[in-house]
Design brief:
Structural class: mainly alpha
Oligomer: single chain
Distance between the termini: 52 Å
Largest sheet: 5 strands, parallel
CATH class of one domain: Alpha Beta
CATH architecture of one domain: 3-Layer(aba) Sandwich
Number of strands: 7
CATH topology of one domain: Rossmann fold
Strand order of the largest sheet: 2-3-4-1-5
Shape: flat
Length: about 1000
């Protein structure tokens, strides 16, 4: 759902005030009118007053992001209650949250026994409604409090019902007596209970109200009084009458200033999420929060209007435009011209486009700045709020908009701006030429997202502009540029579509090398999208056939270098052939002077060196490739070399160096505009996985949130490994929500592969082994479709799949269902066969030619789980599983927990206790709550003490042969009656034996006694 309705706001239209008694008066009789106004307010009648007052925002949700400010106000209130009076002036832009903050303070004050009075200033002319907030505040007096005021007859001006006093011929003395009476009344009230006087919107206060506030605050001493006032910073232009009052107040020692700044992105997103009841996807929440610029009211309006279009919501636009209506005619003209500029606009540009004389322009610009509509920035001007610019732009008439855009097209120098203004002014040929040039500029600046946007606009214009080649390019050139830019920007789906279109167009030109080159690009795009391996193989083979018999060329070398990377998209490859292709690409590129292709082939050769266990050589080749690629600006090759080298270092135990390099890749990819390109994104995903392996889970989750500006695929891929962390932490609600988002937002198989690994573990900890098996099957199916897979992901999935089948088989054994046990064992063998096909033995070998530690750890874990599945008690296998996993602390804990259960079954309590304590400490240190609970439960059943969790002495567990026999049958799922029939005893006798066994083992029920007996090896294991 888009969000709750958040109010109705109208333009500040002075014409609506005609005939309204509240806006058609002079200064006489103001008190009576004020009283009538307050009576209407109290009676709930609607008032025809301008709706420029910001409404209470999000009043139905918890306070977001203002806890520190609220704490400051509560401290000031407590100080006043202790006998040190004070005042706090709360400032902030319109809609930033001043009213909500004051509402929270008022509620807290009332609940604490403070007497609260509130008043508001209204947006009327300077002479209207004097003392209005005090009239409103004193109207809240109780009968007893009114009695305290009646002897102060001068208060009749503010309080109906108090005997009036005749005015003297000395207005100044009359005002002083009034001020003194108000001060005396609040002082008397404060003698009975602490008093909070809260006045909103001081920027609209009349002169009399400002004077009275200054009088009261300057006479705050030991009274138990706190005065809190709010005002809008953005309404305080230089000549605003409140400014001198604030200057005087700020010099008083009893006054504190509290500025409410806009929310940061995190708190803005939290507010939007609360407003939407969690119904909006994270990407939408981020977009709304960013567009709001941290303004709470903007958040509310944009959330409420979600789904109604991309423009500014009508209510918000009306409120924003009310600020413009207060300006002079020339100032409004300049503001409209500035809105068309879309960004910072220079004085010279405004002079040309607006047509105003220089002296007039200077004066109206000063007016717009003083009224906080425009602000100075980088030698020009911009709107204080981007949404204000949008509202003004949307309010322009069509012809006015076209005319202003045409004016800017004559003065801008940036090709990007020229393209924008030409397009908006309907100069399509000019827009096409400028778009092509703007794309080139963006590419040189390392801004692939901007380049893609300009190229796409050029492609849209291509078919509607006469003689489009006059722009200096071709349609195929634009398609190839779009493919490259989309790859670099991480827009992988679009890169594939543009790549296909480029291939189709190139094939019509009868140029084999051009056709091969477009296929090369399409293959790279398809790798980025994790396309089916068979599709990528077909594209590469087509490219190779086009250049196979042609002389050496840069295009042919590129195709050779790509074909040498066949392992990337297929597991059934000829390694020697790939080595030969890489060497040929390397030599041809060197002869042709194609350094980028030569270095790319060198990166591939480094991979083969690692496969041959020549680790030092592989690292040296990788570092050489990094240096050469960086020197020529081949950034995509440089990042690929860095990422591959970092992975080799990691897999061979050089964790610190690997992490340093991976962190640098993230920084470097941002520097060169390739944050979301293939290697830049891979580095981010790998870094999250490294954080997971090292137990740095909070950092991993934080890194996954650093997705500002990321395309959907990148967001999804970075979110997927966080499911591993959430499963290990036991945060299943968050995991479920993210899994649902992944399913809805991404069709990327690699993303679902990683995500399903986490979902499988979560299902296991939740006691849903059948569901876990489904997720493991999904992982393997994704890998089989891709025709490739990650060693770690695959082995993790297999370990979890066999773990789930063990749980299924164990439950089947307990109920005596041998067929189900056999089915689980067969299923485990099938999973193992599939994994061996996906992950051939040539991968994952280190310096000594053996598998890398992570690979060996999971292989040992799988072997141990398979043994458990088959009903065997091989503790050595679990010991083997712990050894290689030492650098993955979490999996050491999980393996230790399993190992301990088998040690207990063998009667080795001392060693089991050691493993349980080790697993428990790991779980607590990491925050691995499901593992901690499982270890605690096993220790409790086995009467083993854990750190900080001492267990009472173990009860006598010497079971008689008859009690053991009963337990065996109960474990097989038989009822007491069936146990009696099997053992030729009565049902009652069987029940007695079971009760005695439960007492000896300290169990509370049948299920627990069977679990304890299994854990201690007291009953036999069914062989499958």
């Amino acid at each position: 759902m888009p969000g709750r309705p958040l109010g109705d706001h109208r333009k500040h239209d002075k014409s609506r005030h005609r005939g309204n008694p509240y806006f058609s008066f002079n200064t006489r009789g103001l008190t009576v009118l004020a009283v009538q106004l307050l009576e209407k307010l109290a009676g709930g009648e609607p008032l025809s007053v301008p709706r420029c007052v910001v409404p209470r925002i999000g009043s139905g949700i918890p306070l977001v992001g203002r806890q520190d400010e609220l704490a400051e106000l509560k401290t000031a209130l407590a100080t006043a209650a202790a006998g040190r009076a004070g005042a706090v002036l709360v400032s902030g832009d319109a809609g930033v949250g001043k009213t909500r903050l004051l509402t929270e303070l008022v509620a807290a004050a009332r609940s604490g026994g403070t007497t609260v009075f509130t008043g508001r200033c209204l947006d009327v002319d300077e002479a209207g409604l004097p003392y209005l907030p005090f009239v409103e505040a004193l109207g809240q007096l109780t009968p007893a409090q009114r009695a305290m005021a009646e002897h102060r007859s001068v208060l009749s001006r503010l309080m109906p019902g108090v005997t009036a006093v005749e005015e003297s011929n000395e207005p100044a003395m009359d005002q002083l007596r009034l001020f003194d009476a108000v001060h005396g009344l609040f002082s008397d009230l404060a003698a009975q209970a602490p008093v909070l006087l809260a006045i909103e919107d001081l920027h609209w206060a009349d002169a009399s109200t400002r004077d009275l506030i200054l009088f009261l605050v300057s006479r705050l001493y030991t009274q138990r009084i706190l005065i809190v006032g709010t005002y809008r910073l953005d309404d305080l232009h230089r000549r605003h009458p409140l400014r001198p009052v604030l200057g005087e107040l700020s010099r008083l020692s009893t006054v504190e200033l509290l500025e409410l700044r806009p929310f940061d992105q995190v708190h803005a997103e939290k507010l939007v999420d609360e407003l939407a009841d969690g119904a909006l996807p994270p990407a939408t929440v981020q977009k709304i929060a960013k567009r709001s610029e941290g303004n709470a009211f903007f958040c509310e309006e944009l959330t409420a209007a979600y789904g109604d279009g991309a423009g500014v919501p009508a209510g918000l636009a009306d409120l924003l435009l009310a600020r413009i209506e207060r300006l002079s005619g020339d100032a409004r003209k300049v503001v409209r011209a500035a809105a068309v500029a879309s960004q910072i606009v220079t004085h010279a540009s405004l002079a040309t486009v607006s047509g105003l004389p220089g002296d007039v322009l200077e004066e109206v610009l000063r007016e717009t700045v003083q009224h906080n509509v425009l602000v100075t920035a980088d030698g020009g001007y911009r709107f204080r709020h981007a949404l204000l610019r949008e509202a003004v732009y949307d309010d322009l008439l069509p012809g006015e908009r076209v005319r202003l855009h045409a004016g800017y097209a004559q003065v801008v120098t940036s090709q990007a701006l020229l393209a924008y203004h030409s397009f908006r002014s309907h100069d399509l040929p000019g827009a096409l030429t400028a778009s092509v040039r703007a794309a080139d500029e963006a590419g040189k600046m390392g801004a692939p997202g901007e380049k893609l946007r300009h190229v796409e606009q050029a492609l849209e214009l291509w078919s509607v502009v006469p003689d489009p080649e006059q722009s200096g390019t071709t349609e195929l050139g634009l398609l190839r540029a779009a493919t490259r830019a989309a790859i670099a920007a991480g827009e992988v789906e679009r890169s594939v579509e543009y790549g296909k279109a480029a291939v189709a167009l190139a094939d019509k030109l009868d140029d084999p090398e051009l056709s091969a080159l477009t296929r090369h690009q399409l293959a790279i795009a398809s790798i980025s999208l994790e396309h089916r391996g068979s599709d990528i193989q077909r594209i590469v083979e087509e490219a190779w056939e086009l250049v196979r018999d042609r002389p050496a060329s840069v295009v042919k070398a590129k195709v050779l270098a790509l074909a040498a990377r066949e392992w990337v998209w297929s597991w059934e490859v000829d390694v020697e052939r790939m080595k030969s292709l890489a060497e040929q690409a390397f030599q041809d590129a060197r002869l042709l002077g194609a350094t980028a292709v030569e270095v790319d082939a060198l990166v591939t050769k480094a991979v083969f060196a690692e496969w041959d266990a020549n680790i030092e050589e592989a690292i040296a080749m990788g570092k050489a490739a990094i240096e050469r690629a960086a020197s020529i600006g081949a950034y995509d090759v440089e990042l690929r070399a860095r990422k591959n080298t970092a992975v080799v270092l990691w897999m061979n135990g050089e964790k610190t160096e690997a992490i340093r390099m991976m962190d640098f890749i993230i920084t470097r990819s941002a520097q060169v505009g390739l944050s979301w390109g293939l290697s830049g994104l891979d580095a981010r995903v790998e870094r999250i996985c490294m954080r997971y392996a090292l137990g740095e889970w909070a950092e991993g989750l934080k890194l996954a949130e650093d997705v500002d500006g990321a395309p959907t695929v990148a967001r999804a891929r970075m979110m997927a490994p966080t499911l591993w962390i959430l499963a290990a932490q036991g945060d299943f609600d968050t995991l479920d929500a993210r899994a649902e988002l992944l399913a809805a937002q991404s069709e990327d198989l690699f993303t679902h592969e990683m995500g399903n690994v986490g979902r499988a573990e979560a299902a296991l900890w939740r006691g849903r082994p059948e569901e876990a098996v489904e997720h493991v099957e999904a992982v393997l199916s994704a890998m089989e479709t891709l025709a490739r897979g990650s060693v770690t992901d695959t082995m993790m999935a297999l370990a979890m799949g066999v773990w789930a089948l063990c749980d299924i088989a164990e439950a089947a054994r307990r109920r005596g269902d041998q067929a189900a046990v056999d089915a689980a064992i067969d299923h485990g063998a099938l999973l193992e066969q599939r994994v061996h096909k996906i992950v051939p033995q040539r991968y994952g070998r280190g310096r000594r030619g053996e598998h890398h530690p992570e690979s060996r750890a999971f292989q040992a874990r799988v072997a141990a789980e398979l043994s458990r599945l088959r009903g065997h008690h091989d503790t050595q296998l679990w010991q083997d599983a712990v050894g290689p996993a030492v650098q993955m602390e979490y999996w050491v804990g999980v393996a230790s927990w399993r190992w301990a259960s088998l040690l207990l079954a063998d009667g080795n309590r001392d060693q089991a206790a050691d493993r349980l304590v080790a697993a428990y400490e790991i779980a607590v240190n990491l925050g691995a709550n499901p593992l901690r609970d499982a270890v605690t439960e096993l220790a409790k059943r086995s009467r083993i003490s854990l750190p900080g969790n001492e267990i009472a002495a173990e009860p006598n567990s010497d079971l008689t042969p008859r009690e053991l026999a009963v337990l065996e049958l109960v474990a097989a799922g038989l009822t007491n009656r069936q146990v009696g029939e099997r053992l030729y005893i009565s049902q009652k006798t069987a029940s007695v034996h079971l009760s005695r066994a439960m007492a000896k083992l300290g169990a509370a029920n049948r299920t627990e006694v069977v679990s304890i007996a299994h854990d201690r090896g007291l009953i036999g294991q069914y062989q499958g």
